[in-house]
């Protein structure tokens, strides 16, 4: 089992009337609510937490990209990765990921990740995401072209990393007459690629074909099981059994001394994440054409409610967060490993409006009392 | 007759006053489109708004008392195929030139609402000789800084109805829409996004090309249009050489859904003034 400490870097200081007044912390929640003095402290605190994770023995430290939102303060994840590159030496520095669907210049991503590969001496991991719906509003990128743009940008970036002669790139959404990325990445043939999935069979097949790591987004365990089973089935069809480490479970985690204490302390922060951070209607998350009608039909027929409508108890019950004392958290993960067959935990531990001291306590308990036993664990059965 | 969508958008107008329409298909490059057709008289090409594709509305039925109404669904809307090669407004113009050729319409009166008004204006700029008289109803298409069209995508269904109608309580929307209804609306919205996400429902070059429009033009606007502000109507009327601006009272951008008789009367009066 591998362990990744993932940060969203939320801005927790929402106004008292946030719930009544704003539809979401994303897209059009005005930046007057960002206090530069508080925000400045947050960046350093969150980077400290990521650096601390390496000292505690996490295998990876991860950042991601979001725009115009209090949900996460990293419009440029590559800048955060750069800030971590020379302050760390062992952990993988993971960008999960660059939102290449909304970038006009995918080559800039190829260049920056290649640079980061050198700054980290080959520790960079390159995730690619499409970008959430609201970011298509924010960047005026047509959501009906999202999937094509993502696919083309991915193909272009990988080709740019692996081709050492100048080439021309022409695809429906991009045209570059001279592709010649300097520097070439350090890792050969290129940094490992991670892709998050939320149920699309195209994505499962794509990841299985390329042998990329497939990571879940926050969803109930039975739903994640369908996704991971889909990935394994796609790999089996291609004639191989995937390494469990190619499956990453993303999940918010809070550990305290006892179960009782963990729930008493963790509850409000988990609720912040789901009820405030993820407060967003479908029109904001999935603008027209962002999702194919087939996938949309699947979602509507399944008719699971959106994450922000789960109560705290339902969140815990559904496996959308793991909260408890060290023993309970360990047992919960053992059960999840057996059920889902993943080999990588991508833990969100600075959850919502959690204060620094709690994040640190939770990280230390997790690293000291949960990770050692889990580390030796491999999935009992990854049967499809 | 494929008019199942009619009841989902529009208030009822007494059947006795409207003429029925029927659906037919027309093969085009890459697939086929649906055309609703009804009535007798001079041909009238009606280009629909972002909402209401695939439905023979009371408004159509009223126009069909005096005209042969030909109402195609745009690619990606209603009963028409996706035709993904049609990516943007210029493709739509060439698509409709093909449709006019296929239908043998050398010159025709064109009426367009909102998104369809934008297409109609572009068509009239491109091929002025193909247009007899032109009616632009709450037409999108112009870029007016400070008075941009309202965002129709970032709305819940309730918010959208409140935005579109002066009297939202009179809008006939299903209380518990089924999956097929939701998907049909999503498909129409996705096609709207395909053509109009960015630039948002406008063509920055359209304004300076409007001098090419030679057709006598009616610019017809609802007085409470909060989607495409009246400034767009004034600009159309100012830039098109032979244009008149008229306002329909007590109505929102839903226009001919909300006030079918008033819009039909104004359009018929204008078109018949040319005959």
What keyword list fits this structure?
heterodimer; A: 384 residues; alpha/beta; TIM Barrel; 8-stranded parallel barrel; two-stranded antiparallel ribbon; globular; B: 275 residues; Rossmann fold; 8-stranded mixed sheet; 8 helices; 31% helix; disordered N terminus
Number of strands of chain B: 8
**Unreliable segments of chain A (pLDDT under 50, ≥5 consecutive)?**
none
Give the N-terminus to C-terminus distance of chain A in angstroms.
20 Å
Strand order of the largest sheet of chain B: 1-2-4-3-5-6-7-8
CATH topology value of chain B: Rossmann fold
- CATH architecture assignment of chain B: 3-Layer(aba) Sandwich
Count of alpha and pi helical runs of chain B: 8
CATH level 3 topology of chain A = TIM Barrel
Classification by helices and strands of chain B: alpha/beta
Report strand % of chain A: 15-25%
Q: What integer value in Å does the Rg of chain B equal? A: 17 Å
Radius of gyration of chain A: 20 Å
**Would you tell me the overall average pLDDT of chain A?**
95
Largest sheet of chain B: 8 strands, mixed
- Report the helical percentage of chain A: 40-55%
| CATH superfamily grouping of chain A | Luciferase-like domain
């Amino acid at each position: 089992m591998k362990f990744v400490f993932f940060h969203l870097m939320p801005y927790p200081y929402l106004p008292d009337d946030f719930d009544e007044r704003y539809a979401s912390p994303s897209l059009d929640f005005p930046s007057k609510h960002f206090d530069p003095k508080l925000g400045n402290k947050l960046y350093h605190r969150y980077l400290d937490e990521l650096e601390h994770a390496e000292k505690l023995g996490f295998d990876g430290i991860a950042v991601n990209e979001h725009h115009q939102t209090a949900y996460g303060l990293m419009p440029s994840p590559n800048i955060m990765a750069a800030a971590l590159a020379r302050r760390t030496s062992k952990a993988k520095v993971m960008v999960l990921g660059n939102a290449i669907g909304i970038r006009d210049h995918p080559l800039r991503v190829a260049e920056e990740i290649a640079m980061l590969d050198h700054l980290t001496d080959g520790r960079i991991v390159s995730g690619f995401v499409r970008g959430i719906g609201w970011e298509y509003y924010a960047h005026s990128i047509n959501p009906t072209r999202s999937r094509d743009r993502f696919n083309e940008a991915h193909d272009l970036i990988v080709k740019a990393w692996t081709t050492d002669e100048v080439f021309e790139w022409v695809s429906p959404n991009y045209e570059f007459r001279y592709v010649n990325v300097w520097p070439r990445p350090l890792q050969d043939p290129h940094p490992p690629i991670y892709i998050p999935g939320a149920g699309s069979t195209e994505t499962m097949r794509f990841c299985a074909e390329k042998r990329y790591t497939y990571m879940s987004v926050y969803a109930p365990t039975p739903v994640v099981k369908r996704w991971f089973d889909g990935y394994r089935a796609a790999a089996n069809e291609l004639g191989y059994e995937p390494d469990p480490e190619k499956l990453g479970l993303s999940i918010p985690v809070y550990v305290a001394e006892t179960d009782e204490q963990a729930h008493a302390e963790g509850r409000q922060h988990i609720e912040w994440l789901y009820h405030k951070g993820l407060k967003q209607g479908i029109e904001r998350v999935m603008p027209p054409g962002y999702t194919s009608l087939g996938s949309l039909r699947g979602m509507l027929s399944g008719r699971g409610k959106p994450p922000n409508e789960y109560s705290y108890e339902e969140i815990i019950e559904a496996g959308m967060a793991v909260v408890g004392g060290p023993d309970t958290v360990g047992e919960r993960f053992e059960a999840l490993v057996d059920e889902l067959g993943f080999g990588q935990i991508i833990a969100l531990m600075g959850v919502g409006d959690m204060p620094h001291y709690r994040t640190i306590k939770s990280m230390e308990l997790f690293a000291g009392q949960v990770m050692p036993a889990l580390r030796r664990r491999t999935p009992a059965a990854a049967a499809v | 007759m494929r008019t199942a969508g009619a009841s989902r958008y529009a208030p009822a107008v007494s059947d006795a006053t409207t003429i029925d329409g029927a659906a037919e298909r027309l093969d085009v490059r890459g697939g086929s489109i649906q055309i609703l057709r009804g009535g007798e008289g001079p041909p009238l090409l009606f280009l629909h708004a972002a909402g209401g594709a695939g439905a023979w509305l009371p408004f159509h039925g009223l126009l069909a008392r005096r005209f042969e109404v030909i109402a195609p669904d745009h690619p990606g809307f209603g009963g028409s195929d996706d035709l993904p090669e049609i990516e943007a407004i210029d493709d739509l113009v060439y698509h409709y030139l093909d449709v006019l050729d296929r239908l043998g319409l050398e010159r025709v009166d064109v009426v367009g609402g909102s998104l369809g008004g934008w297409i109609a204006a572009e068509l009239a700029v491109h091929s002025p000789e193909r247009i007899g008289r032109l009616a632009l109803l709450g037409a999108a298409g112009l870029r007016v800084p400070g008075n941009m069209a309202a965002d129709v995508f970032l709305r819940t269904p309730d918010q959208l109805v409140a935005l579109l109608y002066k009297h939202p309580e009179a809008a006939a929307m299903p209380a518990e829409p089924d999956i097929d209804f939701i998907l049909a609306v999503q498909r129409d919205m996705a096609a709207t996004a395909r053509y109009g996400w960015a630039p948002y429902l406008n063509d920055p070059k359209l304004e300076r090309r409007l001098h090419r429009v030679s057709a006598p033009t009616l610019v017809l606007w609802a007085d409470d249009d909060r989607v495409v502000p009246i400034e767009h109507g004034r600009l159309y009327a100012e830039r098109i050489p032979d244009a008149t601006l008229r306002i329909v009272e007590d109505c929102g951008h839903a226009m001919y859904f909300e006030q079918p008789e008033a819009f039909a009367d104004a359009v018929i009066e204008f078109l018949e003034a040319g005959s």
